[in-house]
Amino acid sequence: MTKRTNGNFILLRNVSFVVSVYRPEFCELLWRSVNPSRFITSSVRRISMATQNRPKVYVTRRVPEIGLQILSPHCEISQWQSDDPVARHELLKNVSGKDALFCLLTDKIDKEVLEQAGPSLRVIGTMSVGYEHIDLEECKRRNISVGFTPDVLTNATAELTVALLLATSRRLKEGIQAVADGSWGTWKPSWLCGSGLDGSTVGIVGLGRIGLAVAKRLSPFGVSKFLYYGRTEKETAKDIGAEFVSFDSLLEKSDFVLGCCSLTEDNKELFNKTAFQKMKKTAVFINTSRGGLVNQTDLYAALSTGQIAAAGLDVTSPEPLPIDNPLLTLHNCVILPHIGSATEKARSAMSEVTAKNILSFLKGQDMPSKLI
Ligand code: DGY
């Protein structure tokens, strides 16, 4: 059967998927014909997909339609029908007895949820690239696979990072405010002067997919040097001529410091008083990763005392940021409501990949984007 791993096989697998969307009853037949050996190894689950006992999936939010279109011919879907997060007690109630969970970054998937789901839960698809909301160790222990959505939101998030950097460094918040409140007097030589990217040094903490995509977008602005820091040196750094440096060195030398890494136990509040003290007084700090990367009390102190020049945040802790948070009083702090991936294209693709991760697992196939 291994001889079937040629072009024909791949074509048939694709056909199988297309057919299955419209005529799910054909899917099993086709699958058996192209891959009988895999059929045997996980026949129980696929048999159940072809009969009335279709796998049960719980979707924790209203999500772009494509994800539901992919799942609905094969699965019994129940869904939290709201744009707001599912309440904890509803999540606990509805996850019970499900085979799969389609969740979002706002759903805390911990031991209690997994316990409540029970042994039927085999796969979780999170519609996010971040996964710190899921207890992966507990999932491993229970042999639950987890899929996520890298790649498809890289461009959107990189674009937003650049937008936030420009808005912050060129003081757009103050400019827009001045136009609206009438304090725009006349053209003045030194009014609202910020710092430009031309000739600057940009330091990126976390040169992963998004960090690299940001650097590629910033390069044409005339950046003279890219520095990066992370757990390991990256082969891809050569694409932008970036230099691997220590965290301290990055802080000391960069005009722009960008947080693009994923949040882990090790880097919680990496950007704290000590870090801000090492940065240039003219430095601009941008975070589009996770709010937990920053000690916000220390950031407020750094911004309000002139320790650093400005900050742009697309992520905060908590989210939403309470409207009485002192950071919101600062003219040199631009805060966006976690919209890094908010393009129609990226969000649709995230829903699609999440559904495909779940469906592939249920069919006994490899997930397109598997985390564990
Ligand atoms: C993610 O998917 O983790 C992003 O933060 C969403 O924008």
From TrEMBL:
Record PROSITE patterns: D_2_HYDROXYACID_DH_3
Give every D-isomer specific 2-hydroxyacid dehydrogenase catalytic domain span: 57-370
UniProt-listed CDD domains: GDH (cd05301)
Keyword annotations from UniProtKB, A to Z? Oxidoreductase
InterPro entries associated with the record: D-isomer_2-hydroxyacid_DH, D-isomer_2_OHA_DH_cat_dom, D-isomer_DH_CS, D-isomer_DH_NAD-bd, NAD(P)-bd_dom_sf
User: Which positions fall inside the D-isomer specific 2-hydroxyacid dehydrogenase NAD-binding domain?
Assistant: 162-340
A Pfam family for this UniProt protein?
A: 2-Hacid_dh_C
Family note: Belongs to the D-isomer specific 2-hydroxyacid dehydrogenase family.
Q: What is this protein called?
A: Glyoxylate reductase/hydroxypyruvate reductase
